[in-house]
Specification:
By secondary structure, the chain is α/β, with parallel strands linked by helices. Helix content is about 45%, strand content about 15%. It has an 8-stranded mixed β-sheet, sandwiched between helices. Strands 5-6 form a two-stranded antiparallel sheet. Bound molecules: NADPH dihydro-nicotinamide-adenine-dinucleotide phosphate and the ligand CC(C)=CCC[C@@H](C)[C@H]1CC[C@H]2C3=C(CC[C@]12C)[C@@]1(C)CCC(=O)C[C@@H]1CC3. The site of the ligand CC(C)=CCC[C@@H](C)[C@H]1CC[C@H]2C3=C(CC[C@]12C)[C@@]1(C)CCC(=O)C[C@@H]1CC3 has 18 residues, from helix 5 and helix 10. This is 3-keto-steroid reductase/17-beta-hydroxysteroid dehydrogenase 7.
Length: about 325
């Protein structure tokens, strides 16, 4: 197969909505779903094929929190495809999240209420853990695993005559002050999610610097606040259902309450239609929804320093060298 579109984490949430939307736009795309739960992935493939019987959908097992799994998946993908047009880096976790209700209530009565409700600044903390690779789980899952995958797939992504696009799912919760170059895995703090998403923004900027000349382009999107398993891990789903009328009202004050996975995937779908050369490396593309439910994309400058992005990129390369040298086990599919 010459060209394909590889999407990570597709059987629920924004990833699944993205796959459905891409097939609606062009049923001829070759879709490869990279997921860690093959049972759910097989059911997802069946659902996609039921709606688009002539579509070409394949599956590959991938756990982005395991280097062994990433290397195996990358070699499998290289056997199947010669080129990837798009790689959607969408897998993400926000584990053991605690909401600071005191800050939420006082924030609602401050001048910063809209900013707080769209970025979650000051509202959330997480308890992170360490993976079997010895890395912080949120860092490895949300960023580093994807980074290693990209590096392994370079031969399928870097072709000057046929550009490829990396599309990362970042967040409005990405925050510079949560990230530190000295502790880029965020092993000491309690805002691992914000840190990992800011690290995503930095990595994308640096990847553009290093790979544009080889025909590889990277962009970050923000899907807005979307009701998915990730948000149901923060507050129970019945609570979100009770909040729904409040959230429709909040839409009059901020366009970031996209709420459905379909709306949240707007910026990813929009990016597929753009010429990658025309995109700005320092811009984040936000899925937005108006009070009446209309979807559109807004471009916003990221709070990213290119020199920090480069220093972070060098640290990622160093870490890559270390972890790959530690991996001595023979690779086999899970
Ligand atoms: N929902 C929201 O409001 C927002 C979400 N985002 C981002 O959007 C992306 C998609 O999340 P969303 O759709 O909301 O939530 P979901 O929980 O529905 O989707 C996350 C997906 O990531 C997969 N995943 C998690 N860990 C791994 C892993 N180790 N290896 C492979 N796949 C993995 C999950 O698979 P599994 O089911 O097996 O766990 C799941 O399919 C994430 O990056 C998230 O950070 C950004 C901004 C807002
Ligand atoms: C009235 C109301 C909407 C109450 C909910 C309060 C909070 C639980 C939410 C307010 C802003 C939300 C938010 C997220 C999670 C839930 C909130 C903190 C995200 C962090 C979810 C994942 C992201 O990547 C960005 C979101 C930003 C906004």
């Amino acid at each position: 197969v010459d060209s394909a579109l590889l999407s990570l984490a597709c059987y629920s949430g924004i990833g699944f909505a993205l796959c459905k939307r891409l097939l609606q736009e062009d049923a001829g795309v070759q879709l490869c779903l990279a997921c860690r739960n093959m049972q759910k992935a097989t059911a997802t493939k069946a659902m996609l094929l039921a709606a688009h019987p002539s579509a070409q959908v394949s599956l590959v097992h991938l756990d982005v929190s395991s280097l062994e799994s990433i290397l195996w998946a990358a070699s499998e993908i290289q056997h199947r495809f010669q080129h990837l047009d798009y790689l959607f880096l969408n897998a993400g976790i926000m584990p053991n999240t605690h909401v600071n209700f005191k800050a939420l209530i006082s924030g609602l009565f401050s001048g910063e209420a809209v900013h707080m409700l769209s970025t979650a600044e000051g509202l959330l903390t997480q308890e992170d853990s360490v993976t079997s690779d010895g890395l912080q789980e949120v860092f490895e899952t949300n960023l580093f695993g994807h980074f290693i995958l990209i590096r392994q797939l370079e031969p399928l992504l870097c072709r000057l005559e046929k550009p490829s696009q990396l599309i990362w799912t970042s967040s409005s919760n990405a925050r510079k002050s949560a990230f530190s170059l000295m502790d880029y895995q965020h092993s000491k703090g309690k805002e691992s999610y914000s840190s990992s998403k800011y690290a995503t923004d930095l990595a994308s900027v640096a990847l553009n610097k290093h790979f544009n000349k080889q025909g590889l382009y990277s962009s970050v999107v923000c899907p807005g606040l979307v009701m998915t398993n990730l948000t149901y891990g923060i507050l129970p789903s019945f609570f979100w259902k009770l909040l729904m009328p409040v959230m429709w009202i909040i839409r009059f004050f901020t366009n970031t309450y996209t709420l459905t996975p379909y709306n949240g995937a707007e910026a990813q779908v929009w990016l597929v239609r753009q010429k990658p050369e025309s995109l700005d490396a320092l811009t984040k593309y936000h899925s937005c929804t108006s009070p009446l439910g209309g979807n559109y994309v807004e471009s916003r400058k990221m709070d990213v320093d290119e020199e920090i992005a480069e220093r972070f990129y060098q640290k990622l390369l160093e870490l890559e060298k270390q972890v790959l040298a530690r991996l001595t086990v023979p690779l086999s599919p899970k």
